[in-house]
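Researcher: I'm preparing a figure for a lab meeting and need a structural model of a single chain. I don't have an experimental structure, so a prediction will have to do for now. The sequence is pasted below. Please return the structure as tokens so I can convert it later.
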Amino acid sequence: MTSAAAKPVITFSEVGKSYGANKALDGISFSMSAGEIVGLLGPNGAGKSTLFQIASGLFAPDTGAVAVFGRDYPSASSEILRRLGVVFQSRSVDLDMSARANLRFHGQLFGLSGKLLAQRIDDVAGFLDIADLLDKQVRTLSGGNQRRVEIARALLNEPQLLLMDEPSVGLDTTARRALVEHVRRIRDARGTSILWATHLVDEVEDADRIVLINKSRVTHQGTPSEIIAAAGAKDLSEAYVALTGGNRPAEF
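Model: Understood. Here is the structure written out token by token.
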């Protein structure tokens, strides 16, 4: 799905961020090409969420720079955000509204309305198999279906880059498997670039590339097979343990 000549959709260049004496990010550098699924893999507290907040324009880095579609924040924030979809770790849908109302409200923030907005809602709901849930109150849905509503919301503007920060938090094994399958379908059907942050190896073992982050730094990056080879391991889970010095990660 990638090409060596493809223009990066996002580039982190020596990105640093500190909170007082705590260095959350320390010289993070990597890029993504169009149509890639990249797994940002690392332990909790490694800096993944801070990196996502910078990637989505919520925070500015203390040092270094991030370019999205070749532009930077804040000078091109509006242009970037029109082409970006974000699923944050914390739930951000209104539980007291229906799924359709949540999607309609979010679509209006992107300037969508009328028949176009209605069609976009129907399209993303059908794609993510939640069409029959659109008129149900979100709090009545399972955790997995609430997550699908959030992903549907992130797809309404037909983003070229989808950022997903620990999207499976709180989901059971079945819902996690379904989420992984839906994300791959998004890339295969739409050519969407996807950056998936997780500490769960199985979620990204089929990613095009892995960026391993530990203690605020990128320690390794490459295809899953390259990461496995670098660790002299038999699989990605074993490589993760060897390269982070951590406990064996949770699996499906």
